[in-house]
Every structure is written in structure tokens, then in C-alpha cells.
Amino acid sequence: MKHSLFSIIFLLIANFSYAQKGSITGLLLDESDLPLIGATVQVKGLSYLGTISDNNGKFILVNVPEGKQEIEISYLGFETYKETIDLAAGQELDLKRIQMKGNFILGDEVVILGTNLQGQAKALGQQKNANNIVNVISADQVGKFPDSNVGDALKRVPGITMQYDQGEARFGLIRGTSPDLSAITINGERVPSAEGETRAVQLDLIPADMIQSIEVSKTLTPDMDADAIGGSANLVLRSAPSNLRVSGTLGTGYNFLTEKPMLNGAIVLGNRFFDDKLGVIVSSSYFDHQLGSHNIEAEWDDADNPYMTDFQVRTYDVHRIRRSLSTTLDYTLGTNSKIYVSGIYNHRDDRENRYRLRYKDIEMNDDGSYTAEIRRQTKGGLDDNNNKNTRLEDQRTYNVTLGGEHLLANRFKLDWSGTLAKASEERPHERYISWRQKDVGLSQDLTSTRQPNINDNGAGMQYGDFDLKEITQEQQYTEELDKNAKINLEIPLNNTKNKSIIKIGGRYRGKEKSRNNGYMEYAPLDEAPFGNMTLQPMKDQTRDPFLAGNYTSGNFTDATALGQYDLTNTSLFEATDLPEEYLGGNYNAKEQISAGYAMLKQSVGTKWFFIVGARIENTQVDYTGYQIEFNEEGDFDPSATKTIEGTNSYTNFLPNVQARYNINENTILRAAWTNTLARPRYYDLVPYRSISREDNELSEGNPNLKPTTSMNFDFMAEHYFENVGILSGGVFQKTLNDFIYDYQARNYQDPASGNVYDRYSQPRNGAKASLLGTEVAFQYPFTGALKGFALYTNYTYTHSEIQDLGIEEREDETLALPGTAPHTVNGSLSFDSQKFSFRISLNYTAAYLDELSDEAFKDRYYDQQLFLDANASYAFNEKLRLYVEGNNLLNTPLRYYQGFEEYTMQSEYYNARVQLGLKFDLSK
């Protein structure tokens, strides 16, 4: 097959190499010498000779006839650029840098783009000229919102819902699909995940100020990786500037929950050297934030007469430090040939202490009273320079790419790249101490099930009655290593107004993922100092006010004392390894993906443009897991533990058809029929078996899982206003096959052993799901009396259904696809003048199903959220700007509920935070 492919390429090159036509290249820049992406470049009079500028602002026109030609370059919101050149036969002409002016004529007025409109113009210009349905956020736009990480920036995009952790956006749900069903890439290369049980990428790990632009592709083309049912968000790193660039940010802030300061800073340095052959840019970011949360959690039983079976009051103290470093180097080998190296390194430390008051195993007595076990737990870590008496979550990722872009025979575009990427999460010396008081009588205050409470008659504050339950220390480590390579070749087939281009290419992705956890329990040899809770140093963790409601936390073992326990000293503590706590979750996985594609890009006159093609992806997976069992007494049975291996392979053929129709220069219709997939979660594929004899339950992995596939239909209409605005609307429909669900059964007979289990669970294929949605977006900068004001808003509606779920108790129900928020709204109103700018923004997401259970009352829902943010800036001059930002001004909580909206499962508050600082750009 390889020989046939290269033979075709050779014949095509030979067939065209005799034509002595030339090429024209150039670099498009704005007035700040930043690249203009997606600009239209055409030869006047030869409308079929056109192209768009790439992510570096560079364009290449091929098949240009010799003689005098007029080049015309247009970009939304910028003055059209024209230049007449005289091209010799076979000449490779480089126009070097072309600086376009940020202004346009509206009626009789010349409109000069302000800082806000420049960012909007760049994003809309790129979106307008894209071949597929895409939304773009430029770095200028990111800087105009108070968004510290790319997750917070992505929530501004139509159809994207975010899930939060400690007040920051972490996982993105694109078009009503779970984070596992979408892709996050950096410069087109998949970002590995440090999560052990999912493929989802933590977006709060990557600072927003490290990115040149964010491209969210709602429809994929055949030359893109196919594993993105919801869509693909591509983070584009900064490219080397054309001149010296020195810019940065220095700021501070204040968190109203912890009442502690924040610190953030960023720097960008770039220039070109050796007669502009070598381009270098380096970016760095630092963010130091002491944050926290106030939290309650509950579990409910008995849908007819609901009561809590578990209730917790939690207080979190978190110190988050995020560092990032990226660089891009490119070297020009010739007029139309270059090689480049780009990379980004992200490192985030989360140091956390958690104090948990828990009423566990609440049972209702015959007289309507309740009995429970009360526990008080402190989470911390070793007292050293690394953990600092806290649970340390050390997450790191890097992506490094070596690639090249070449124009062969003045006609054929060849690009290639190789990428090494890694993500890891380490939790060293994670410690817990837990105290308990058994068989405590209590009552439940369910006056408000949104803020339920427990009355234990003061028993929870009788610290002398709490006995030591356990002291434990965990070691957790997860890593994912990716080795990727790809090559693409574009071949023009003709030189007419009905231009045809064939693009072919191949991809290899090699992935290795592993999780290696450990868990030790420590018993003090001298029990006297641990006879009750009061004998160890305590600290009152009650917060006033406690934002989650009228709850009192009380005293807990001091985290510093926990960190100073000398657990490795065998004269003080007896250590016990507990494989049953971690071994079933450990695994090793290898995944190899080989892919190839072919696509035809076909223009029909100046109105129609088509993409027709297909992609083939073959996946080979090998997994190793562990079987663990428990005896009838509930004790771990080491004799039954063994290693289990699994393997699987499958091939997916994915056809793709997309059409674009230009009604006029500013009105576009788009339609697409695409096929995409989502591979199973790593842990779901692991062939583990976990058997609990005490509860008579069996759960196991499934190495034979197939990927979920989706057939997608999209239609979008876009109208671009001359004053740099847009009105767009469209519909999309997805049909998912082999949807992976958690199969649950009662009285299950295991075919391997013949044993009958009360409950059985396993991830399986078979369910089908459909998703229907619509998107509307409107951006409009006002003129006249409202000049300087601009409105930005979008709305997304989604509806989903699952058929044939496979849960016996719910086979007659119509269920929604988890992660499908029915309504999502973004809006902002801004004002921009030469010196001053201001923006207030809203983000609303309706409640949606988050996790299915075997009965409706136990389903988990992510509650509705409304966020209000604001920011303003004042420019002292072109080089220096003062900014102020406010986040979560409504103190919106993270809330889950069980079954019905009034039954809180989790309610977590973070309060507001503000930042103040300076942004400088010494290049201007």
C-alpha cells in the first residue's frame, strides 16, 4: 500500500513539474506586528487563484502565471491591501512582511479599530474563511475577559459547558457531550491526560495568557484526528514575531473567601535573527492563588419518604501555584521551506487541607429516629519542603513538536511533524487521620432539603468520645506518554476557476498510560497518646460565615501534627500494606493508532466550495489489570489476586462531506456530514475483576469495548457585518452508536465461575443515543450615539435521548445523555475607547443530568449556574495599561442534586475574587 501511495505521488509530481508557473509568499501582520490568521489572498482577475493565511500569518499562492499580477488581500475589519508584481516563469517571489491597517470605511466614516475590536476582527476573520464550522477566540479577546485559564476562556464559546473545581473551569463539554467525547489539542496535537480513569484533559492546568488563539472545530475534516464526537478545541501557541517583542503582565489580587492575596505575572520575548531566517519567541506565566471552599454533601434514600443516609460538612484550604513556559523556534531554509520546534510545559501544584465532619451509615430506626457513626477526618501530608503538611497534587504536562513546511516544485505543499508529549499526576505522602464515634442517636432537619442538617444533640462536639479509626498514607502516580507523527501532502489538480486540490496524509499515535498507587495503614504501638481525639493537637476549623449554610465544623486534628508523625519509625508505628485499597485501580495500557486519509477540496466557481473525503483509523490496544477478591467476612483474599491481560483491535472507516456556499462576500451557508468516534476510557478497558464476598458483588472491566461512533449532520448560516460583527445560527444532530454505559444487573450468574452475585456492573457497548441542538450567536459593535459599546451574546439548546440503555430497572424510561445541558447562554456588554475599556459578562448553564444510576431518584444532576464577571482597563499610553478584574461576583456555587432539584448532593461555595495589575508592551 505504501509503495502504491508513493507511486501516485511521484506520478502526480512528474505530471505537473513541467509547468513553469511561480509562487508568491508573504507574511501578514497587524499594526502591532502580530500575525493575521485566515486572511483572504487572491490574484485579481483570477479568482480561482486564492488562499488564506496560516496560524503564523503566512500565505503561499501557487500555480501563479508569469507576468504582471495584482495581489489583493482582504481581512474583516482591515483595509484591503493591493500590490502589483511582475512574476517571472518559475519564480518563487517572497513579499516579506505586509502590514495591514486596522480600519475600514462604514458609510462616509473611516472607522479605526480599537483594542477590543482588533481581537474580535481577528477571530471573526479566521472563522469566516475556515473550511469547516469553527469558533475562534484570539489572544486579544482572551485578554479582554477575566479568564485565568483556557477552561474559563472556552466557556465564552457557543455550545461549550464547563465543569468546575475549586472555582476554576476544569473540564469542557462541547455540544452536550461529556469531556471524554471531545478533543483538546495543542497546535493540532492531542494533549495527554493526567487523569487515571478518563481521557479528559484538565483545562485549568494551562494558563490563558500562553495561547495565541483557541480554535473550536464543531465539524472535523478528514485531515483531523477523528476522536472528537463533540468537537475539537485546538490551542495555538504563539509564533515568532517579525520584530522585537517584549510584553507582559504583573498583577496581584484578593480572594474574599480565604482573605488572602494573589500574585500573577507573565512575560513574552521574541525576535528574528540572522537576516530574519531564525525566529524565536518565549512565553512564561506564573500564578499563585490561595483559595478554598465551603462544602456540604449528602446522599439520599427512599424516594417516597426521602432521608439522608450520609451527610458531610467539608472545609477546604488550597494553595494553587501554576507555572507555564512555552517557546517556538522557526528557521527558514528557503523562500518556501522552513522547519520549526514548538513546545509548552505546564506545572501546577495544588496543596490542599480538607477537614471533613461526616455522619456515615445513617440508619432509620423503627421509631423514626436515626443512628449513625460520626467521623472527623483531616487530610494533609508529610511535613517537608514538598508537601508542607498538605495533600500535594503535582500535575505536569509537556508537548514538544519538531516539524517542517515545504513547497515542492512551486506547487505541492508538504508538511510533517513529530511530537513527544507527556502528562503526569503525583500525590506523594498523602495522609489522613480519622476519628469516630459509633452508634450515635440523631435527628435530621429536612425543613430545607437544599440545606439539610443533622442534630446530634452535641455528640459531634464531644471530642473525648472520638476513638482513633485509622491513620493512612497514600502514594498515587499516573502518567500518559504520547509519541506522534504525521505527514500531509497537498496536490493541485488544475488551474481553473473550478479549482481541485487533493490532500492525502498519514498519522501514527503511540500511547502508554499507567497508574501505580499504594496505600498503607499505620497503627501506633503506644495507644495511650491516641486514646481519644483530645490527646492530639486540635484546631478549630469553624468558618464564620460558612457560605454553604448554618453549619459548624468544630475541631479537627491539626494538619501540622499529622504531617509530623514519624510513620516510618517501626518503634512508633506498625505499618500494614492494604492492596485491596489500590491494586484494583492500578493498570498499564498501550494504544497504537495508525491512520490515513484522502480528501478532495473542490471549488465550483466563486460561490461553492466542497470537501469530500474519508479517514481510516486502526486501533490496537493492550491492557494489564488485576483481579482482587474479598471473602465472606469482607476481608481481602490475597490468594485470589492475579494479573489479567487483555488485547483488542478495531478499524473505523469515516467518510466526510462538507459544503460551503457564499451567498455574497459577507453571508455564508455551511453544511456537513461527518463521522467521528470516541475511544473507551482507559480504566473501562482494563480487564480487572473486583469481587466483594461480603456484599456479594462483582464489578469488572471490559477489554472488548468498541469505540463509540457518531454520525453528525450540521448546518450553519453566518452573516458578517462590515463593522466587525456577526449574526449566525445553525442546527446539529448526532446519532451515537455503541454508546458506552455502566451495565448493572441483579442476581447475576458469572459465566467464569458459575457463582450468582446480588449485584454486577461492567462498562458495555450497545446503547444508542441521539442529540439534537441549535446555536445562535450575535456580536455587534454599535455606531452613532452608542459608538464604543459592543454586545456579544450566544445561546445553545440541546436535547438528547438514550435508547436501549441496558439497565433492567429502567428499560421503559426515556433518558437523557449525561452532560447535555438543555440551555447555555453567554453574554457581555463592553465599552471601548482610545484610553478606557470596560466589560461585564454573564455565563449561564441550565441544570443537566451528570450521572445515571439504576433508579431515577439516585441519578445525579449538575445544577444550573449563573456567573457574573467584570473587568476594566485604562491605557496610560501605547506601552502601559492598568487593569482590574472581578470573578464570580454572584458567589455562584458548584451544586449537584439527587433525583429532584430540592435534594442537595453537593453544594460548594468559593466566593468572589478580584485582580489588579499592569500590562505592558514595549514593542509598540
UniProtKB/TrEMBL annotation:
It holds the Pfam family Plug. It comes from the Bacteria. It is a multi-pass membrane protein. It is found in: Cell outer membrane. Residues 128-231 form the TonB-dependent receptor plug domain. InterPro entries: Beta-barrel_TonB, Beta-barrel_TonB_sf, CarboxyPept-like_regulatory, Plug_dom, Plug_dom_sf, TonB-dep_rcpt-like, TonB_rcpt_bac. Residues 1-19 form the signal peptide. Its main location: membrane. Residues 447-889 form the TonB-dependent receptor-like beta-barrel domain. GO terms for cellular component: cell outer membrane. Belongs to the TonB-dependent receptor family. This is TonB-dependent receptor. It comes from Flammeovirga agarivorans.
